[in-house]
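> forwarded from #structure-qc
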């Protein structure tokens, strides 16, 4: 079927016979006719018939079952469709009159046209923005636009054909440039729609971030905050909650969690705080030891894990626990630290000044030894404590003789000035070792 048949089949047999009698040429890649464009006059004729065109477009959209029509009040729908059609017609009239013979924008005053006030694309931009805010799918919006384009182009053909065969031919010759211009109108519609989507996402993200911060700051006990957390974040007011704190920049924490717990129903909400990625987890029926084991096997960065919290109101304390647990791991290392398993280390990192003074007071001159000797004596003392203060077992662990261990212990007593048989001094030395392993102590 030829293009001409496509164009005129809908107008009836008599009209088709008349059109086929005219020597109609398809438009080529030529610029607009030097004598001027016929589009502005045709478009202005249709502007006077806008109310009728609005009804025809609404009927056509209803016939084609465009779904979103029922979502918009009738008065708003007619107003927006009228603005769309009017803006569409003014746009093609203005662009056609502002196009010189080379197809480039020219001076509207030379053509005698009164330019559209402001940006001619303001109407489609606003129309697309409005449809997005109403929740209209972009596909439905573009479908109405295509129907409007089809209807108005047919009306332009009707007006040109009613005028003369020459006018119709000139309209065909100008169709290529005009359709290129109309493509910018469609682009403006989509741009307005995407702009509204971006604004909505930005507002949702800001609302989500504010709510996330409110929970970490201890406002989860507020009924309004809890209700919004259920709607916005999908978190119930009560449950088995956990907070994770991770060093930022190590990849997607959500994927890490999914890899650690395949097939487990753990709801997680993630946020960024300074140089930390923070996760609020609702564990459901997932066992905490299993989560810790799998995270330890899969993570490549530091992870601090809070103790379990029973509701949103306890998340602030849980967040503090997760941050404290993470700080018990030396920077630059990888591993998982559970707050409840590292309470002694938590004492150290939450009171670093006291912990450093304790280490200096308990270990004394040992910390002033050369690095090699200091490391050897500290590892011996650590193993001795770890082996229940047994020199023989410590010797096995250190792969040396029992007397070697005893000699090192005597050297430690000389450097510290206290006996390791003193229970209080033993406790101080144990805490001092924790401080040495956890905090960066100044070198002697």
């Amino acid at each position: 079927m030829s293009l001409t048949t496509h164009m005129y089949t809908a107008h009836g047999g008599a009209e088709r016979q008349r059109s086929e009698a005219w020597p109609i040429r398809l438009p080529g890649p030529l610029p607009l006719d030097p004598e001027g464009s016929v589009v502005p006059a045709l478009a202005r004729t249709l502007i006077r018939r806008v109310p009728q065109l609005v009804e025809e477009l609404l009927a056509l959209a209803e016939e084609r079952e465009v779904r979103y029509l029922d979502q918009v009040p009738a008065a708003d729908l007619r107003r927006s469709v009228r603005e769309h059609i009017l803006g569409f017609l003014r746009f093609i009239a203005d662009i056609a009159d502002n196009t010189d013979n080379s197809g480039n924008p020219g001076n509207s005053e030379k053509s005698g046209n009164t330019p559209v006030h402001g940006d001619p694309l303001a109407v489609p931009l606003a129309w697309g923005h409005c449809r997005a805010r109403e929740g209209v799918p972009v596909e439905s919006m573009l479908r109405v636009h295509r129907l409007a384009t089809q209807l108005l182009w047919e009306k332009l053909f009707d007006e040109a054909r009613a005028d003369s065969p020459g006018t119709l031919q000139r309209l065909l010759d100008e169709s290529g440039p005009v359709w290129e211009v109309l493509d910018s109108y469609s682009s403006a519609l989509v741009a307005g729609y995407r702009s509204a989507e971006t604004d909505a996402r930005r507002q949702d993200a800001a609302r989500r971030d504010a709510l996330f911060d409110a929970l970490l700051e201890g406002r989860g006990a507020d009924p309004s905050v809890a209700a919004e957390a259920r709607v916005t974040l999908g978190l119930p007011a009560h449950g088995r909650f956990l907070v994770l704190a991770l060093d930022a920049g190590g990849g997607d924490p959500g994927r890490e969690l999914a890899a650690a717990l395949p097939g487990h129903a753990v709801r997680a909400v993630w946020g960024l705080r300074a140089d930390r990625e923070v996760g609020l987890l609702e564990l459901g029926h997932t066992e905490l030891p299993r989560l810790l084991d799998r995270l330890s096997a899969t993570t490549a960065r530091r992870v601090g894990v809070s103790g379990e919290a029973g509701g949103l109101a306890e998340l602030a304390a849980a967040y503090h626990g997760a941050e404290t647990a993470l700080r018990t791991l030396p920077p630059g290392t990888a591993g998982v630290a559970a707050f409840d398993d590292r309470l002694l280390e938590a004492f150290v990192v939450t009171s670093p000044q006291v912990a450093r003074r304790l280490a200096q007071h308990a270990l004394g001159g040992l910390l002033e030894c050369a690095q090699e000797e200091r490391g050897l004596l500290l590892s011996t003392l650590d193993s001795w404590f770890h082996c229940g203060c047994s020199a023989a077992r410590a010797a096995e662990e250190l792969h040396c003789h029992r007397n070697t261990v005893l000699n090192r212990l005597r050297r430690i007593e000389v450097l510290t000035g206290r006996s390791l048989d003193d229970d209080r001094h033993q406790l101080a030395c144990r805490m001092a070792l924790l401080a040495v392993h956890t905090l960066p102590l100044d070198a002697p």
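QC bot note: The longest strand covers residues 238-247. The beta strands are 238-247, 267-273, 276-282, 302-305, 309-311, 335-338.
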